[in-house]
C-alpha cells in the first residue's frame, strides 16, 4: 500500500500532441516570432536614431550575421518567456497543448532553457519525422508536448486510484 503512494504519473504516448498539432504550433509560433522581431527591430532602430545612428537600419539589412544573431535572440526570448511562465506558447494556446516533464508537471527553468537552445540545432525540424511526434528539443530536454485536457483527465484518473 505504501509503495503505491510513492508512484508518480508518467506521460504516455497516447496523450502526446499529434504531428498536426505540432506543425500548427510551429506555424503560429513562427508568426508570433516575426511579430516580436518586427517590434524589437523598430524599437532598436528608434533607439539608434535617437542616439544619432542614422545608418542603423541600412547597415543592419546588409549584415547577415547581425540579422541571424538578432533573430536567434528573438527566438530564444520568445520560447523562454512563454514556456517558463506558462509552459505554453501562442501556438500551444491555440492547439490546447502544453509542455510538461515526464510526470506531467511544468518543467523547471533549466529544462525550458535547454529546450529553447536545442531548437537552434541545424535540421532539428527533421527530428519530427518519426513516431511519436517528439523532436530533439523534446527528447534532449526530457520534456513532452501533450494535449492539455487529456493530461488533466489522465492525471485525475491516476491520482484517484491512489
TrEMBL record:
<dbReference type="InterPro" id="IPR010432">
    <property type="entry name" value="RDD"/>
</dbReference>
<feature type="transmembrane region" description="Helical">
    <location>
        <begin position="65"/>
        <end position="82"/>
    </location>
</feature>
<keyword id="KW-0472">Membrane</keyword>
<dbReference type="GO" id="GO:0005886">
    <property type="term" value="C:plasma membrane"/>
</dbReference>
<keyword id="KW-0812">Transmembrane</keyword>
<keyword id="KW-1133">Transmembrane helix</keyword>
<dbReference type="Pfam" id="PF06271">
    <property type="entry name" value="RDD"/>
</dbReference>
<keyword id="KW-1003">Cell membrane</keyword>
<feature type="transmembrane region" description="Helical">
    <location>
        <begin position="30"/>
        <end position="50"/>
    </location>
</feature>
<feature type="domain" description="RDD">
    <location>
        <begin position="17"/>
        <end position="129"/>
    </location>
</feature>
<dbReference type="InterPro" id="IPR051791">
    <property type="entry name" value="Pra-immunoreactive"/>
</dbReference>
<protein>
    <recommendedName>
        <fullName>RDD domain-containing protein</fullName>
    </recommendedName>
</protein>
